[in-house]
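Q: Okay, next protein. This is Hydrolase from Amycolatopsis mediterranei. I've checked the sequence twice, so it should be correct. Can you predict the 3D structure?
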Amino acid sequence: MRLAHDDLGPKSGRPVLLVHGHPFDRSMWRPQAEHLAKSGYRVVTPDLRGYGESPTEDTKTGLDVFARDLVELADHLQLDRFVLGGLSMGGQIVMHLVGDHPGRASALVLADTFAGLDTPEAKQARYDTADRIAAEGMERYAEELLPKMISRQTRATRPDVEKHVRTMMRSAPRAGAAAALRGRAERPDYTPGLSDIDVPTLVVVGSEDEFTPVADAELIHRKTQASTLVVIEGAGHLPNLERETEFDEALSTFLNDSGVHP
């Protein structure tokens, strides 16, 4: 399927493909897309199938399907190799893509994500939550998630970020979000594949992240050969929005140090 997407920066620039998390949309990456585009990169930010402006009829969307959609979009845009980044579920999709489609990524960004499997309880909770949001919509779910998505400090000092995050979550299509939760519950364990990653990798996490704490990022960093770990102080699960200046600086430094120039 053809994903709705933004394509910023010069078409001749080094391509960067950024994958949003659940339950968000491509506007999640707007600060990074604008920052990198001004530096001369070509930045593509899609809405995943079932999110934002990308439709779906799926009742369960596996991470392999999301990965295949992204490769098809890259092929459509004639992007042979690209920097590939994802946050949370987006990071898991990145890990799936590099396993299923080797050779496409020239560098990786794994932000606030988790390589391992869910516990049986967490897996069942994904199924239960999928059924619940399919029946009742996103509003109550969004309000319950919000305090865990961003840090207490962010909520106190960045009402603009809180508003953006709330809007994305409340606006997420219930059917697409439910389908993704069901598929994500059945994802494989990405931990063994981390040692096969042979491109520069930035592992970044908010210091106050409740969903994927710093220990999860440290594990990915230890098992991924050419990786750099950055902890964004004071941020929760969405450091790219909560502390965009620090996140953008870490991203630019990583790309420059890795020789990935515009």
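A: Here is a summary of the prediction. The CA atoms of residues 200 and 258 lie 6 Å apart. The chain has one domain: 5-257.
Q: Noted. On to the next one.
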